[in-house]
Amino acid sequence: MAKSSVSSTAPPVSPDSTASVTPLPASYEAALQELEGLVARLESGQLPLDQLLTGYQRGAQLLKFCRDRLEAVEIQIKVLEGTELKPWNQA
Question: Is the whole model's pTM more than 0.85, yes or no?
Answer without folding.
Answer: no
